[in-house]
Amino acid sequence: MGAPLKVAVLISGRGSNLQALIDAFGPNAPDGAVKIALVLSNKANALGLERAAKAGLKTEIVDHTAFQSREDFDVAIDREIRAAGAEFVVLAGFMRLLSPQFVTVWKDRLINIHPALLPAFPGLDTHRRALEAGVRFHGATVHFVRQETDTGPIIAQAAVPVLPGDDEAALAARVLQAEHKLYPLALRLVAEGKARVEGERVIIDGASFAEGALLNPVR
Predict the structure, then answer these.
(1) Model pTM?
(2) Is 114 a known active-site residue?
(3) Which one is catalytic: 64, 114, 127, 180?
(4) Alpha carbon distance 86, 90 (integer Å)
């Protein structure tokens, strides 16, 4: 196995997907495909910072309200990412729109997880909108980031059933369980070179499909 992929994880809140990544790739995890070099938050009170500190990970806070523009904020976070030695950026509940300049600089080295089966239901309130639309399956998507919100080549998706009697909270909880399995899997595929971008599609090494979570609904 080669050197691990050094990643910076960007968060804004409780960090439940961060915790899934820590469990998979943290200092005490057996999987050496990924090294979390930095956990960065735009909010000092983000619970995810406590999760990172408990795991012994390097943390930084860059308060977006201290900057005059989105571009200036992105320059600051880019500086911290590079100073930590990270070569890849993972968005895990980072509630800031990134500037076109940042997305361009980190193109194909920047991924996000979205609580819907993209391209369906981009943006906010995905669970409410899925219920209103009457879909039978909802889920989560891990994708490379492009300038348009919630667009970009899809790495992996997990589907969950929409059950009779579901409300937003119940559906959101089921999707979140799927996210916690999906994000480490997708990041591992990228880190091991099994998922690569060609044009605007991701090509997956055929053997990787045996891992199952790419295709099988999470119940």
Answers:
(1) 0.93
(2) yes
(3) 114
(4) 10
